[in-house]
Design a protein that fits this description.
- There is one protein chain.
- The protein is mostly helical and about 170 residues long.
- It has 2 helices and no strands.
């Protein structure tokens, strides 16, 4: 028999090689140190006229700043007074409107109570007509009162502003 010889490939054991990467280091660079150059500033005397002009400018700037500061404080005070007057007036106006509505509602409920006790159609017409007359007069008086109150609120609100402008114009003149 024929022996077949197979070429056997020798089995080679490969050892795992540990792959190590060399530690990468950034080259260390140092920032060069520069010294600040020293310049010799020539010493020269500022003429008296320039010095005087600079001093006057500084003094005038301080004076203008004080005037501006005073004007800003006055304007702030004016706004506070105006808002206080407007707030007070508007709350009073609101109370008058509520009072008016209450009065008109009570009058309407009184009419409905009277209409329930009416005995005839002519009685209903008579009571309704009388109510309309008195209600028309009442509403006219209420409207007049509300308009007067609104005018008063507007005047009281605008008064501080008016006084401020008058004072400013008198100072400017």
């Amino acid at each position: 028999m024929a022996e077949s010889t197979t070429a056997a490939t020798p089995k080679v054991k490969v050892k795992p090689v540990a792959v190590t990467t060399p530690a990468f280091e950034m080259p260390k660079f140092e920032i060069p140190k520069f010294e600040m150059p020293k310049f010799d500033v020539p010493k020269m005397e500022v003429p008296a006229a320039y010095r005087e002009l600079a001093e006057k400018s500084v003094a005038q700037t301080k004076e203008n700043y004080e005037k501006l500061k005073t004007a800003a404080e006055d304007a702030t005070e004016l706004l506070e007074e105006t808002y206080a007057a407007a707030s007070k007036g508007l709350s009073g106006y609101g109370l008058k409107v509520i009072e008016t509505a209450r009065t008109n509602s009570n009058a309407a409920f009184d009419l409905y109570g009277e209409l329930l006790s009416a005995k005839s159609y002519s009685d209903v017409v008579e009571k309704t007509t009388a109510f309309m007359r008195t209600q028309f007069e009442t509403i006219t008086a209420q409207t007049k009162d509300l308009a007067e109150h609104a005018q008063k609120v507007a005047t009281e609100t605008a008064e501080p502003i008016k006084e401020s402008f008058t004072g400013a114009f008198n100072k400017a003149a």
